[in-house]
């Protein structure tokens, strides 16, 4: 019987709840101990099937095990179900929990594939524990957006309406589901129509200055947005590429 192990941090430290999915015992225990020392509550799993069991137990529950997580650290080469399939399934089911991939595969293609299936960051083995902790903290900072102190106006452009306070987007009369990053990118574009944004500028405004991942994650998110906004994503009318410079809206 497969099971998840939970290890709590010091009661005065409540930095977040992290699931570490790693089949190599030494790496799993080392990461677990480092996170606990930093003040995180840690759950561990040694294979992909354990995560699927967690997901299935969560179906139909408003307070599911997955939604109670603040971050998932996910190895790619796992027994039974690999990390890419887990990442893809979590995103398909609508879970927006940040995912940090760990992998011995460090080529550009491998990193792009990981980002395309929904990961937020990608760290290549072997890695330094200080860098891992820094990436965990950076992901959590970006994911926990502050509550706005003012009421931003509703943004409209042709057939698209964005409601900042409600985190809702309506396209051609139908509400669409966007991830937090997709929503922030679209809000930035609609607040500055026709302005050209470079990848670095988008990363600075949406991911933050402490982002340590690949800039190609911008291209991945733009493609996802086009699939949700455009009538024909291969011939976009809203999100346009300005070759040699970046992207603009409208």
Automatic annotation (TrEMBL):
Residues 152-250 form the OmpR/PhoB-type domain. Residues 17-140 form the Response regulatory domain. GO terms for molecular function: phosphorelay response regulator activity; transcription cis-regulatory region binding. It holds the Pfam family Trans_reg_C. It comes from the Bacteria. One of its GO terms (biological process) is regulation of DNA-templated transcription. This is Sensory transduction protein RegX3. It comes from Desertifilum tharense IPPAS B-1220.
